[in-house]
Amino acid sequence: MVSAEVLEKLETEFKKLEASDSKSLLKKYLTREIFDQLKTKQTSFGSTLLDCIQSGLANHDSGVGIYAPDAEAYTVFADLFDPIIEDYHNGFKKTDKHPPKDFGDCDTLGNLDPAGEYVVSTRVRCGRSLQGYPFNPCLTEEQYKEMQDKVSSTLSGLEGELKGTYYPLAGMTKEVQQKLIDDHFLFKEGDRFLQTANACRFWPTGRGIYHNENKTFLVWCNEEDHLRIISMQMGGDLGQVFRRLTTAVNDIEKRIPFSHDDRLGFLTFCPTNLGTTIRASVHIKVPKLAANKAKLDEIAGKFNLQVRGTRGEHTEAEGGIYDISNKRRMGLTEYQAVKEMYDGITELIKIEKEL
Ligand code: ADP
Ligand code: CIR
After folding, report:
1. Could you give the count of Cα atoms lying within 13 Å of 247 in the half-sphere of its Cβ?
2. Residue 123 designated active-site
3. Which residues constitute the domain of residue 293?
4. Which end of the chain is more exposed for a tag (fewer CB within 10 A), N or C?
5. Residue of the nearest CA to atom 26 in ligand 1?
6. How far is the CA of 27 from the centre of ligand 2 (A)?
7. Tally of structural domains, the chain
8. Mean pLDDT, rounded, for 220-244
9. What is the pLDDT of residue 248?
10. What does pLDDT average to over the chain?
11. Which ligand 1 atom sits closest to the C-alpha of 323?
């Protein structure tokens, strides 16, 4: 049974959201009818509607505003998740099925900017959830420790270019942590969207980063998702970056079983990351296009691209450097998601050159 306290909080905060000018997908799709239908539901982990939407209720400036506290929430609260998923992932309907994993032929993706005039660096990441564990809001401190042990010992088996070291956040000096964040290798701390989603409990327990010597291959442990697997390097050689990622993911998948759903693809905490979970991005300087930020967003949108600031989501551009990536991750293959970024960035550079 959902407690009277939770129901009361839901009611009060829902009214505030309704009265706000929030542009979030949560506000767009949480009608009174859907709200009343879902407010008394619970998953077998005890997760309620409040657990799903508290981040969006606390942050009216959310773009999306909803997270799945456990995988079952995608089914129990489907009447809210499905339209949000459809909107974010370019029309992925509740009757649609995400295609099977397909990394395609990385060799068909070349260097986006061989002369090095525009692209500063290239990064491709994906998210994975460990089978048998719920997402952040439902994890116990013990589970965080257990997962970190599992992840660090598994990754210690990687070889060649992927060989590296796991660094737990607990015990890392603030200087080292800040340098890793400033250099774009490590997740930031204190993200209010995640905090209010109840995703930062027991921090920094169980959180950490694995990376190879050159920091071209990295794995985040227990930040937003159980795992974020990342390949990145300076310049625009997307083919090389994606090839490294696919090699790593194929190898790690042989060692750890991940949560996958027949319809939704790989399962993640945030519905924007479901499916392929791929975000392929460049750090890019396009000063002429960026002279009008609204115009840059509009043109990027035409190519299904999303523009972020230099330090990632919810940050500003520094030194004219934008993070531009594929927006949708569902209803297409891994290869197609990366190709969407490749084709879009190729067009953006062409437009920039012509201005
Ligand atoms: P995520 O990519 O995991 O969704 P963020 O948007 O917060 O999360 O980005 C995480 C970090 O990755 C940030 O420090 C951001 O600057 C960095 N980053 C993203 N794309 C690139 C890129 N192409 N080159 C260098 N750093 C990047
Ligand atoms: C928002 O709604 O703005 C945040 N909750 C982030 C949403 C999408 N980003 C993500 O998954 N990293």
Report:
1. 17
2. no
3. 106-354
4. N
5. 184
6. 14
7. 2
8. 98
9. 98
10. 97
11. 20
